[in-house]
Design brief:
The chain has a single domain, classed as TIM Barrel. Helices cover 52% and strands 17% of the residues. It has helices spanning 10-18, 29-35, 39-49, 63-74, 88-99, 112-120, 130-134, 140-154, 168-177, 186-191, 196-212, and strands at residues 2-6, 24-26, 54-57, 80-85, 103-109, 125-128, 159-162, 181-184. The longest helix has 17 residues, at 196-212. It is globular and about 70 Å long. It binds erythose-4-phosphate. Residues 6, 26, 28, 107, 127, 129, 131-132, 163-164, 183 line the site of erythose-4-phosphate (E4P).
């Protein structure tokens, strides 16, 4: 499973990228707001840092306007994936932008039917939102599994990009289901390293090393 990092924070992306943990980046208007940066400037910087796909989201609601915005975003760098919402207008924009050779990430997906339409419209990535479904007491992971089944049934090449990931458990569950990509905030990716038995075991080893007088350097 590829790891995308869900942030527009350059320092956080750089830290994970240095460890080989970043196969791509996803942003959205809320993450751009949080960064306090200009969308074109920060997106360009991210694209220079990361060689994989960097999703940049349109803000228009009409198809023609989304297409114009998507073309402008795609000029930032060859690794831009234009992000469009899963509306009828967004699907039209997806078809045009992908026919023109752009990577397209269709976002705000909350149902298997929406994912089926995105694949038909030539999406490179479909972004089902797990956490926002969980917030409504609907299991977001079930949606990832349903889309995996449907795409495999028909050989759709659209990649399942599990989004709105809130916990380390979401990451391992997505990997078990077979999501192609998971995008997560830096804190969730770091939390995957945590285990209380690791901390407990290390604590004991530190104490025993001191008692044994072990010195390596
Ligand atoms: C990524 O593409 C999505 O925009 C993001 O994962 C949404 O996450 P949230 O539901 O935590 O805002």
């Amino acid at each position: 499973m590829k790891f995308f990092v869900d942030t527009a924070d350059i320092d956080a992306i750089a830290e994970l990228n240095d460890l080989g943990m970043v196969d791509g980046v996803t942003t959205n208007p809320s993450l751009i707001l949080k960064s306090g940066r200009d969308i074109m400037e920060v997106t360009k910087e991210i694209c220079e840092l990361v060689s994989g796909p960097v999703s940049a989201e349109v803000i228009a609601l009409e198809a023609e306007d989304m297409i114009a915005e998507g073309r402008k975003l795609a000029e930032i760098a060859p690794n831009i994936a234009v992000k469009v919402p899963l509306t009828w207008a967004g699907l039209k924009a997806c078809k045009t932008l992908s026919d023109e050779g752009n990577m397209v990430n269709v976002t705000l997906c909350f149902s298997a039917n929406q994912a089926l339409l995105a694949a038909k419209a030539g999406a490179t990535f479909i972004s089902p939102f797990i956490g926002r479904l969980d917030d409504l007491n609907i299991d977001g992971l079930d949606l990832i599994a349903d889309i995996r089944t449907i795409y495999d049934n028909y050989g759709f090449e659209t990649q399942i990009l599990a989004a709105s990931i809130r916990t380390a458990n979401h990451m391992s569950e997505c990997a078990k289901i077979g999501a192609d990509v998971a995008t997560a905030p830096p804190a969730v990716i770091k939390a995957m390293a945590n285990h209380m038995l690791t901390d407990k075991g290390l604590d004991q080893f530190v104490k025993d090393a001191a008692q044994a007088g072990i010195k390596i350097l």
